[in-house]
Amino acid sequence: MDLKLKDKVAIVLAASKGLGKASALALSAEGAKVVISSRNADELNKTAAEIQQQTGNEVIAIPADISIAEQIITLIKKTADIFGRIDILLNNAGGPPFDKFENFDDEQWRKAFELSLLSFARTSRQVLPYMQRAGGGRIINIISGSVKSVLNNAVLSTSMRMGVVGMAKLMADEFGPYHITVNNIAPGLILTDRIQETFPKGMDKDQALKEKTKAIPAGRIGKPEELGALVAFLASAQAAYISGTTIQVDGGASRGIF
Ligand SMILES: NC(=O)c1ccc[n+]([C@@H]2O[C@H](COP(=O)([O-])OP(=O)(O)OC[C@H]3O[C@@H](n4cnc5c(N)ncnc54)[C@H](OP(=O)(O)O)[C@@H]3O)[C@@H](O)[C@H]2O)c1
Fold first, then answer.
1. Most buried residue, 92, 118, 216, 219, by CB count within 10 Å?
2. Which residues, 6 or more positions from 257, have their beta carbon under 8 angstroms from its beta carbon?
3. Terminal alpha carbon distance of the chain
4. What is the CATH number of the domain that holds 214?
């Protein structure tokens, strides 16, 4: 299927590795011009070169911290200056820390809000005029399966991502007339550095994976490219009638019915 992404311009946030990188690779492989961003410039440049080499399509690295307003405004302006348009925005960030509710203070709540909710609102607001001018667009938010099924110690993540779900629904409502769709992807367990860091210290990697995946109907952990494929589809012309939704990529792991 031709997803009709050739020469579309995509911004992919938090993309030096993990789910962001896999999303950037999938969009680039479909012909999009991709701007990737995250904080560490060296890692980001390496990733941009690697994706461009693999797909043959232009990938530009612009470092930014998604929680800092000025850096995001500059990133979006630079993208528009370079390519003259913005068609796709993939909102993504490193996740907030895991712990019990009673261990988080106001400062940690504020940081989680800035990283996982305010940042997505800000980037979406900044790209809106460009998408309106382009006659349409796609906003895709990477959130977490914790919005569908309780995840221990994920109170910061769940609280902020529930906010993203509500925000995306309202944005889908407002942006529909501009032919801009807004959707969320809720990953379950997908093998990235973030997940490897949660493996119990000293436990063999295969054993840790076995423990973590025993309740997943698919019987295994997900691969980043399996989420990237959904990003490319949601960004495509064919997905024009899908908006305001949250789609899980979790091998059937969620215990929720809705
Ligand atoms: N993997 C899963 O199974 C899973 C499940 C549920 C939810 N999620 C969520 O999906 C998102 C991506 O996770 P991942 O597994 O891909 O993580 P990852 O492999 O650790 O990658 C995180 C990426 O985010 C960038 N980043 C972190 N903080 C940033 C910031 N403030 N500004 C800009 N970029 C930032 C990192 O680069 P720099 O450090 O250089 O900035 C890196 O490129 C997270 O929000 C995570 O909570 C993942």
1. 92
2. none
3. 29
4. 3.40.50.720
- 254 lies in a domain? no
State the total domains in the chain.
Answer: 1
In a domain? residue 32: yes
Helix-helix angle 155-175:106-113, to 10 degrees:
30
pLDDT (0 to 100) of residue 61: 98
Nearest to 16 by CA among 58, 54, 51: 51
Choose among 186, 189, 150: nearest CA to 165.
186
Q: Is the dihedral of CA 39, 127, 140, 165 positive or negative?
A: positive
Confidence of residue 29 (pLDDT cuts 50, 70, 90): very high
Instruction: Report whether residue 137 contacts ligand 1, using a CB cutoff of 6 Å.
Output: no
Distance 92 CA to ligand 1 centre (A): 7
Q: In this structure, is residue 162 part of a structural domain? A: yes
Nearest CA to ligand 1 atom 20: 194
**What is the band of 199 on the pLDDT scale with cuts at 50, 70, 90?**
confident
Instruction: Read off the pLDDT of residues 214-256 as tens digits, 9 standing for 90 and up.
Output: 999 999 999 999 999 999 999 999 999 999 999 999 999 999 9
Q: pTM here?
A: 0.98
Q: How far is the CA of 18 from the centre of ligand 1 (A)?
A: 7
* 159: containing domain: 9-249
pLDDT of residue 147: 97
Contact 191, 199 (CB under 8 A): no
Residue type, 196: Q
